[in-house]
Specification:
Layout (H helix, E strand, L loop, with lengths): L5 E6 L4 E8 L3 E9 L5 H5 L7 E5 L3 E2 L18 E3 L2 E2 L12 H7 L3 E4 L3 H11 L2 E7 L6 H10 L9 H4 L5 E3 L7 E6 L6 H7 L3 E6 L5 H6 L4 E4 L10 H12 L4 E4 L1 H9 L4 E17 L5 E12 L6 E4 L2 E9 L5 E6 L4 E4 L14 H11 L2
Parallel strand pairs: 3-4, 4-6, 5-7, 6-8, 11-12, 11-13, 13-14, 14-20
Antiparallel strand pairs: 1-2, 1-9, 2-8, 3-9, 10-12, 15-16, 15-18, 17-18, 18-19, 19-20
Length: 372
């Protein structure tokens, strides 16, 4: 198909953006969200947390470093669609083996290019993330039919997606060098760099499916349990919350990231809510309450925990507190038991692609298990 064919992006409120095809030709539906990262589009597109989302890139030019075989964060592209302003005319990087356009075509990911992404992002910031669709080729039909398809899809609110992206069977990532600890990582949409970060610190990581039972976890005799990032509404995860409460009840050290932060917060008795347009990018400032330390972080979430900076509250497992908040808007970015036995953050310390300000949290988990 010619890259100059017409494509349109239709939003649930009736707004339409006209451009040209990018990637595969056809139609796709998802929640329209925007990502403010200037780099790392390969990591973004292969992040399972983007399942069923049409990602709008705020960076004006996308694709200039092509696509390689090393930087995927999972086994496939997970985004429902991709909307960009200016696709690079050629890929120029020594690690690239093909173009972004070619990879989107290979994986049948429908996209759109040449639209005013600034106007689209401003619209999503004002009105909030919303249902959307991209249509091209034979799927480019009359406006009312496309709008009906967009509005007929499932909302992200109430969507249970962790099982869609989780591994089907356990696999193990062995430690680099001496084996120090064994970690069970519950895959709710885990990124590949997370087990690597654990392995670099001498941890053997058993990555298990999202439907794992507590008895199965105990059989692996872990020094600690990890709850990964992932897509969907945390309010749907009652079984995972109950599992987390069992881990806490046994006083097993626990660490969570992103979706895992919301699960731990719910296990503490906190509520979650859907954000207006979420945090998605690799440039989000977070404040650690006790130290005042600010980390520039990678984030990808459209839901968050209720709470205020420094808030201390009771749980069945002892007192807990809100440990981190976003410097931009005060959204909860971390919770922990005051005892230190369990902690989580809303952002991505594995930071692929960058930054690396929060990598120390993996060392904190190692220290916690060392003292267990």
């Amino acid at each position: 198909m010619s890259s100059s064919e017409t494509a349109v992006m239709v939003l649930e409120d009736g707004r339409v953006f006209r451009g040209t095809t990018f990637g595969a030709v056809g139609e796709t539906l998802g929640e329209a969200v925007f990502c403010t990262a200037m780099t790392g589009y390969q990591e973004t597109l292969t992040d399972p947390s983007y399942d069923r989302q049409i990602v709008v890139a705020t960076a004006p030019q996308i694709g200039n470093t092509g696509w390689n075989d090393e930087d995927d964060e999972s086994g496939k592209i997970w985004v429902a669609g991709y909307a960009v302003r200016d696709p690079a005319r050629r890929a120029s990087n020594w690690r690239a083996t093909r173009t972004l356009q070619a990879e989107l075509e290979n994986q049948n990911v429908v996209g759109i290019a040449g639209i005013d992404t600034r106007a689209l992002v401003r619209h999503l910031r004002t009105r909030g993330s919303m249902k959307a669709g991209i249509f091209s080729g034979a799927s480019l039909t009359d406006y009312e039919a496309m709008l009906d398809k967009v509005n007929g899809q499932q909302s992200m609110l109430g969507a249970d997606l962790a099982a869609e992206v989780s591994t089907d069977a356990m696999y193990t990532v062995d430690p680099v060098g001496e084996h120090r600890f064994t970690v069970v990582a519950v895959d709710l949409g885990i990124k590949s760099n997370t087990p690597r970060m654990f392995a670099q610190r001498g941890m053997r990581v058993h990555v298990v499916p999202s439907n794992v039972t507590f008895d199965q976890i105990k059989e692996l005799n872990p020094n600690g349990v990890f709850l990964s990032n992932g897509p969907g509404d945390p309010a749907t995860q009652d079984a995972m919350v109950a599992l987390t409460q069992q881990v806490l009840g046994e006083d097993i050290p626990l660490f969570g990231i992103c979706f895992g932060n919301q699960i731990l917060g719910r296990a503490f008795g906190r509520d979650t809510y859907k954000m207006k347009f979420g945090h998605r990018g690799i440039n989000v400032p977070v404040v650690e309450h006790h130290s005042g330390r600010i980390s520039i972080t990678a984030q990808n979430h459209g839901f968050a925990l209720e709470g205020e900076r420094g808030e201390v509250f009771d749980t069945p497992f002892g007192k807990a507190e809100v440990s981190h908040v976003c410097a931009n808007d005060g959204v909860v970015e971390g919770v922990q038991l005051v005892s230190g036995r369990a902690f989580s953050v809303q952002y991505h310390p594995e930071a692929a692609a960058g930054p690396h300000d929060a990598a120390y949290l993996f060392d904190r988990f190692a220290t916690l298990m060392e003292g267990a």
